[in-house]
Write a structure and sequence with these properties.
It is a single chain. This protein folds into two domains: 3-23 and 95-214, HAD superfamily/HAD-like (Rossmann fold, 3-Layer(aba) Sandwich); 25-91. The protein is globular, with a radius of gyration of 17 Å. Helix 4 (71-90) packs parallel to helix 6. The chain has eight helices and eight strands, in the order E-E-H-H-H-H-H-E-H-E-H-E-H-E-E-E. With 216 residues, it is an alpha/beta fold. The strands form two sheets. The chain has a six-stranded parallel β-sheet with strand order 4-3-2-5-6-7, sandwiched between helices. The chain has a two-stranded parallel ribbon with strand order 1-8. Pfam families: HAD_2.
């Protein structure tokens, strides 16, 4: 079922990467599980770090890892995890309807600025969108070099702008800014999905971007 949403007052559209533009949540959960255990072993600390990492999808991997490990181990985990992610994205395609959705948004409102807003690594995301010929639809990639909140403040996003995301951390950022929030649940992780008490704050829920119809 197609759901319409108005972009008439929206100057900026922010789109999450993992779980919205690419079906990668399950892979990333498995990959960080492997990478942390390669370095930290099968320890209680490793399990706690894995659970925290996956619960707070959408936040920079370095920020999450530094909560549990010293920098030397953080670097080793990130090297292993980054290698796994790069190999995964080489063979991955965009989610159903993503490119057509971006085309429709740009066609109906050429002046709108569209950003990827992600806690992922910029070069991994850039490589993916170039390979999938999606780069022309985005004005900028706002990634893990800063927090999502910082990116929103710097870009002067306002309450008429829209964030499309898939996690409770995405929704929390949207609510605190505030922005309108569209929830994509077709590729969501049980570890990081919004809590029941957050659902009332969601403006629209869709399985994937093919279910969204932008209107003026």
């Amino acid at each position: 079922m197609t759901k319409k949403f108005s972009v008439s007052n929206c100057a900026k559209l922010f789109v999450d990467f993992d779980g919205v533009l690419v079906d990668s949540n399950r892979f990333k959960e498995d990959a960080i599980h492997q990478s942390i255990k390669e370095v930290a072993g099968n320890t209680i600390l490793a399990k706690e770090a894995i659970d925290y990492f996956n619960e707070y999808a959408g936040i920079s991997r370095k920020v999450k890892l530094r909560k549990y490990f010293k920098m030397g181990d953080v670097d080793l985990i990130m090297q292993s995890y980054g290698k796994k992610c790069r190999e995964f994205f080489v063979n991955s395609k965009s989610t159903s309807g993503s490119i057509d959705f971006l085309k429709r948004v740009k066609a109906i409102k050429p002046s709108i600025k569209v950003y990827i807003l992600s806690g992922g690594e910029k070069e991994e995301i850039r490589s993916f969108i170039l390979k999938n010929k999606m780069d022309s639809y985005f004005n900028e990639l706002l990634c893990s070099e800063e927090s999502k909140s910082y990116h929103l403040k710097r870009s002067k996003a306002n309450r008429d702008d829209i964030f499309i995301g898939d996690s409770k951390s995405d929704l929390s950022v949207a609510l605190s800014h505030p922005l309108k929030f569209i929830y994509v649940d077709g590729f969501v992780s049980d570890h990081s999905s919004p809590t029941k008490d957050q659902f009332d704050a969601i403006n629209i829920t869709v399985k994937n971007l093919s279910e969204l119809e932008p209107i003026i």
